[in-house]
Amino acid sequence: MVDKGRTDKIKGKAKEMAGKATSDHEQELEGKLEQARGEAKKIRGETQERAERAMRESRRDRG
Asked: DSSP of 1-63, one letter per residue?
């Protein structure tokens, strides 16, 4: 099973909430950055899956 950034998003949200609770703005921003990194991984994974699927379908159609 591929993670697709889910772990980064969860850890980032926890870090953001901890930063808010302790008024640690740097930690809060780090959490938001980690969430964005997770979203980017998710998008990359989905795009890669679509490209691989399109290549398989193209090969199947030709042969």
From this structure: ---TTHHHHHHHHHHHHHHHHTT-HHHHHHHHHHHHHHHHHHHHHHHHHHHHHHHHHHHHHH-
